[in-house]
Predict the structure of Enoyl-CoA hydratase.
Amino acid sequence: MAYETILVETRGKVGLVTLNRPKALNALNSVVMEEVVAALQAFEADEAIGAIVLTGSEKAFAAGADIKEMQEKSYIDMYMADFFAGWDAMTRIRKPIIAAVSGYALGGGCELAMMCDFIIAGDNAKFGQPEITLGVMPGMGGSQRLTRFVGKSKAMDMCLTGRMMDAAEAERSGLVSRVVPAADVVEEAVKAAEKIAGLSLPAVMMNKEAVNRAYETTLTEGLRFERRVFHAMFALDDQKEGMAAFSEKRPATFRNR
Ligand code: CO8
């Protein structure tokens, strides 16, 4: 499928989606949303793909939702279109998605990175929720997800002042999992995705589901869910193979079943 605002490629078992609106610093408009979701859904349906990386350019992962697209809209326009609700489809992707963030991840860009399963940042990354400076607020999860990632104090600071967080602060605060040299961010994310894609896909998906459950439920229910899924994994051929390979001191060959 030909896309206008993104580049899509595969690297072995890894699907790579690159935001590609360089003149607008990858600002997210409705076309970007439709295309990213379509590309992720295509990788989800592709049996050859085990993990996905979402990235931008070295200067900007994405500098936010497209201000020019939103500027003249009225309340009723936004409400009737349920503006940007289409991004919710991304959270229904069951294969892992790694955000490789270089440069600016602001507003919707920061929110998009947080919708991925984890973030690997270049040492030049800058995260922020500057919507307050435009007279609005985050609308793609920033007030909720950022608070869960970095806690109330830092989330309030970011949402109320609009200040940016650099890569070191983002790692210290738990927003990103690792910081790597900016020039290597895509390669490092693809390497992590390759590692994941070499494991048992059903086990990977169940791990993702269980960690995400921690955000949605109480500890008691989360622990119950985890134990039930853990027990269920003993129906997988891949569990037999993984444990046999360990005992026989050889690499496991997973068959995703
Ligand atoms: N929207 C549209 N265009 C943008 C955006 C954006 N968010 N960001 C940058 N651009 C454009 C600029 O207008 C400029 O275009 P042009 O050359 O035609 O003037 C081009 O990209 C390059 O940008 P700059 O010249 O500004 O580049 P600088 O290097 O000087 O500055 C910055 C880089 C600091 C990133 C600066 O561009 C900036 O501040 N951008 C806006 C950041 C921002 O406020 N983001 C939040 C947007 S609002 C949002 O994300 C809400 C999300 C929730 C929506 C959900 C609704 C339900």
In short: The longest strand covers residues 6-11.
